[in-house]
Amino acid sequence: MGKVNIALRGWRFDESAVFTDDGDIKPIDEMEPTTRERIVRLRQLIDSPCHACWLIHGDSELDACNDAAAVYGEPLSEVVLCEEHEPDFRYWFREQGGADHRGEPALQDAFHEWFADGGRAPEEYEPVEHVDTDPTAVPSVSGTGSAADAEQEAQSVDLDSLDI
Ligand SMILES: [Zn+2]
Q: What Pfam families does the record tag this protein with (predicted)?
């Protein structure tokens, strides 16, 4: 079994952690806690604006921010990026010491600082291969409640509608 993206690029899941042997999506309460945490979090992030766009435009111009296309880092301290800004994150992570924060909550702040400071990937830095995802196919979680609320809400939603 391989690894799969669900809804956004970045976080990858073992197929066996998300699917049953028959190829159906597991009930969320049968997933490992770390998998469940990310699936639940993904549902909240799917409608989030790109963090880099947000750093440029701010809360007053949320309409100008692109939708999420990718997510990196740990749940609740992740970095959400649009198509345009994902290469900036990848460049920072690989070439600017970002990888030092792998697995740490500090990753989000460190990237935000670098980007807000004018950090950008060089022109044409490793364009991301297009992956066929349709974020609109994923039901959104309303509001910005606690992780526990989100988990409760997620349990009541039909996971078959997740785009995989
Ligand atoms: Zn962006």
A: DUF8114
